[in-house]
Amino acid sequence: MERLLVLVRHGQSDWNLKNLFTGWKDPDLTEQGVAEAVEAGKKLKDLKLSFDIAFTSDLTRAQHTLALILEQLGQTGLETLKDQALNERDYGDLTGMNKDEAREKFGEEQVHVWRRSFDVPPPGGESLKMTAERVLPYYHAEILPRVLGGERVIVAAHGNSLRSLVMELEGLTPEQILKRELATGAPIVYRLKEDGSIDSVQDLTD
Fold first, then answer.
1. CATH number at residue 48
2. For residue 25, what is the DSSP state?
3. Which among 36, 39, 64, 88 is annotated as catalytic?
């Protein structure tokens, strides 16, 4: 039985381009982001992959990425479940702020702590630990059972919600996951064993 799980971070968004903390705000993809999503679809098509169900967040940039991928695969009508559990980390008071301006206002060291510590949230926002605490229960309840049941699953989401899944799947420590960068529009193809552990992994980052 094939147990296929593909994770893909959305393509570049307008706020990525402008170097803004995005979080739960809802900008769409840039032209580059659209191209990245189309390329992701082509890479999956080259591997002759298709899917039985898709999961995505409640945010446009992830949904648009997924739609462009599925278009490349000829699967535009695929059943798709959308949930806030897969949303990007909430950056709280930093949301909408330019990252360089945030460093000027709060100091380089403080902004680095908010961005790169595992369990220190920015004011009014979420740490990566808090993000994982909403992503992982959803994964175990809704996504993993589908994969273990033999369905081929694709998840289009965000840098930090996907970091939570990568940390779980690959058994990484908080220190290791903080160093893990997920490129925009770059699928990671996991094949799982019957206990949910990894059988093989293929990172399609250029």
1. 3.40.50.1240
2. -
3. 88
